[in-house]
């Protein structure tokens, strides 16, 4: 989390907010070295999360013993 003085934030607010939209990083605004406010990027709480890159790479099997049968499963271990 970055921290910056209130005068710097005021002078460059548009650029800082545009950068925050890209990086999703919080910023703490300080006044005379003391924290005054935290600016956080907007996040839509009602949006469905996007699946990750590996979302479709795993296959979940319900029963891993039955395809071999219990006798073969015991022999394999």
Number of separate helices: 3
Order of helices and strands: EHHEEH
- Using the coordinates shown, work out and report the CATH topology of one domain: YefM-like fold
> Which bin fits the share of residues in helices?
25-40%
Return the CATH class of one domain.
Alpha Beta
**N-end to C-end Cα span:** 50 Å
Overall pLDDT: 83
Structural class: alpha+beta
Principal-axis shape equals rod-shaped
The CATH homologous superfamily of one domain is called YefM-like domain
Major β-sheet strand ordering: 1-2-3
For the secondary structure, the number of strands is 3
Runs in which pLDDT lies below 50 for 5 or more consecutive residues are none
What is the radius of gyration?
26 Å
Oligomer: single chain
Measured by DSSP, the beta-strand proportion falls in 15-25%
CATH architecture of one domain: 3-Layer(aba) Sandwich
Question: Overview of this structure, please?
Answer:
The structure is a single chain. The protein is of the alpha+beta class and 77 residues long. It has a domain at 1-42: 3-Layer(aba) Sandwich (YefM-like fold). Helices cover 32% and strands 19% of the residues. It contains 3 helices and 3 strands, in the order βααββα. It has helices at residues 6-11, 13-23, 69-76, and strands spanning 2-5, 27-31, 34-39. It has a 3-stranded mixed beta sheet with strand order 1-2-3. The model has no long low-confidence stretch (mean pLDDT 83).
